[in-house]
Amino acid sequence: MEKSNNTQSRRSFLKVSSITGGGMMIGFSWLANLIPNEAIAGPAAAKEWVELTGFIKIFPDNRIVILSPNPEFGQNVMTSLPMLIAEELEVDWTKVTVEQGDYDTPRFKRQFTGGSQAMRTAWKPLRTAGATARFMLLQAAANEWNVPAAELTASNGVVSHKATNKTASYGALATAASKLTAPEKITLKKNGEFSLIGTPQKNVEGSKVVTGKSLFTMDYKQEGMLIAMAIRPTAFGMKLKSFDATEALKMPGIKDVFEIQVYKDGYVKAGFDTRTFNNLVVVVGNTTWEVMNARKKVNIQWEAFAPYKEFAGAGNNKREDTIPAGLESSDEHLKQMYAKQKIQGKILRKDGDPEAAFAKAKKVIEKTYSAPFLPHNTMEPISCFAHITDEKAFFVAPIQIPEMMKQSITMNLDIPAEKIEMKLARMGGGFGRRAYGHYIIEAGLISKKMKAPVKLIYTREDDMTNGVYRPSYMVTYKAAIDEKNNVTAIHVKGGGIPENAIHENRFPAGAFENYLAEGWDIPSNITIGAFRAPRSNFIASAEQSFLDELAEAIGKDPIDYRIELLKKAKANPVGKNNEYDADRYIGVLELVKEKSKWGDPKNKNAKRGVAAYFCHNSYAAHVLELTMKDGLPVVGNIVSALDCGVVVNPEGAKNMAEGAIVDGIGNVLFGGLRFEKGVPMQKNFNQYRMIRMKEAPKKIDIHFVQNNIDPTGLGEPPFPPIFAAFANALYKATGKRHYHQPFINDLNKS
Amino acid sequence: MIQLNINDKVYEVDASADMPLLWAIRDLVGLTGTKFGCGMAQCGACTVHVNGSPVRSCSFPVAAAAGKKITTIEGMNEKIGEAVKKAWIELQVPQCGYCQSGQIMSATALLKSKPHPTDADIDAAMQGNLCRCGTYQRIRSAIHRAAEMI
After folding, report:
1. Which of A312-321, B82-91, B137-146 has the lowest mean pLDDT?
2. Predicted-assembly ipTM surpassing the 0.90 threshold
3. pLDDT, position A44
4. DSSP assignment of A567-587
5. Which chain A positions have a beta carbon within 8 Å of B129's beta carbon?
6. Which residues pair with A490 in a beta bridge?
7. Distance between CA atoms of residues A696 and A707, nearest Å
8. Res A69: pLDDT
9. Residues of A in contact with B23 (CB under 8 A)
10. Nearest chain B CA: its distance from A378 CA (Å)
11. DSSP annotation of A272
């Protein structure tokens, strides 16, 4: 549980200074929230200033600007983060604007957006910075009016002294305040005492979005800019052999056609460098259409590659990976995974004596689940702008992890870190795809070669067929049931291509005396990476479908059965390291039960399914209702209960949770990229079925558990459990359980 | 040279006749509110109005648009368009926002032909516009809201 401590020490992460031309600036470390106090206390204060990751500026004209290092891709941080500052600073939050911090080494020591962590990491630093500024502004007024600071109040950006009727705006006080010493300790409002936090507020970027004025990387333009596109191998397992650009070079508007190598030979990859196709043919020209046409005229030969070695990690984690050769197919993958399920895997966790329990069982239920590779399919295809000159390397990039790109840029583009300038554009969707910045290296290499500003564009086909996919998974759940209809053991075994999805210490671990988790993996040359709630997005779908089936087998209500297990895990937890809070888990189940009128549904014709999950520090439970029409499911109302602690901006939070729900329904029903001989079989939206308006739920009701726990994220947690809520409702509506995603394949057969 | 009338302004563009209108608007005219999503009329991000009708500009040759009245998101300023944009903000539709220009252009076209659409009308008219963030049910509600405002 996130414990709240509302007294914050300034020393560790905060610095106040004046602004040239007047005003005050409060710099702070974004991640101080997550660093134990002991680690940052002590004499090394000066060094810590270097690590400040954001700031607030108060200008003499009363403008308040926050610099946020967190890039925006629809999670609404440009609205929710300023609310934190305004709450403690006591200003009209609509007067607070957020500026996107650019890549700025070494000041932005750690820029990372992902894992639903923005709100969790910003919660204390931003409020502390706001409270400190308010304290100093009050002190500045007290000094000027020669009255005790305790007699002053601050509201709406104005300091008042009731006794003398004096008032002064923050802007007027800011310069004087910046010269004061910041307080050593500052007391923040207690959770539950907020006036702005917890109120629904509209997206500050809303009017830009609806008028087409938001600038995405795709929209960036600079004088003399060229357009570049790459040609990549047609199949995973292939590499460039040779090419002939004679015809392409004759096409109008074309400047050059050449080969680039993305990562250098022997380059040791960091965490977010991927195994993209390494040798590409690049076509550069004046306009997008000219480059698209010329690209078709390049004559290229590809060849299969032999197994090769890659180097990754650092220090003790340094490792050598062998990338297998071969042209892989989805049908073959499935056979390989079934074969792995028949042999012993690696033991991930074992409680009690599961073998004995299964040997004694009166009845065993065993079900196998699988899911395919998924492309992210962000609506804005991958793109990157680069302009490399002797003076600097300038990028406009849609990237979730700017800081992590430093090594790759310096090593692969031979650019010293201090010359890197990166503007972080609003992103047309992320979902994990934009954590993998190989496209920044690609754009940089092209600009270096052309000695010109270049925008690299991926077409939809490039984006979908050269992805960093969600892995393909399989898992088998097995339960032992005794003669009294008690479940005596659970066995979960599974793996994936190339990694397994099992979180062995999550529920239902801890609730069963006898528990065994086994995993395996199958190496592959298909590139994979993080996808909204990595691993959880598959394992939750299987686990929560299995629990539904198990509850039915022993004659229990699916919600009550989950609650019973969680109560058991709380009272008598089996094993150590159970990574969930049973009370909060029960909380969302009880809330969804109440709000959905589980026992007495309004729509008697619809069939309903329930599922719940915990990941990325938050809890989610959904009840989904559907009906069948012409053999296909039509989703009606969805009721959700979420626990992410304090909900900072319920409006934005609801929107994001709704989005995760729609995303999950789309993926469980339609999602899946098939491979044949290394070739991705879907290349654009005519072949890859995405959820569309007709399949969207009729209504989604989001309910939050009301508590005063420090906030945790919401971008990912509502996503994993919706898969199983859908699966369990589909079973109720059709009488048939579905185990293999996407379900549309089976539905079309029947 | 091809003459284009975009948002009541005339532009001369040096484009081959087969260049999709999308790339003429984005690369040559420089209006970037109209988005590239798929290049084959499957996602709707590039939707503009040509003589008042919604068109997927990524698959519409620029030569065919010559002499016609083209409206992009930047010029969607008449009564229905304004109501749609207002409803979009009131009901907080966007997340990442990339698809929303196209959604708004399709929604405006629908309301022009059907001032009071049913859910089924909306589903049919908006089926060609993908939203990866999953704002569909908000879009549905916002279209109803815009209909009330008009």
Report:
1. A312-321
2. yes
3. 32
4. HHHHHS--SS---S-HHHHHH
5. 692-693
6. A479, A515
7. 31
8. 65
9. 287-289
10. 6
11. T
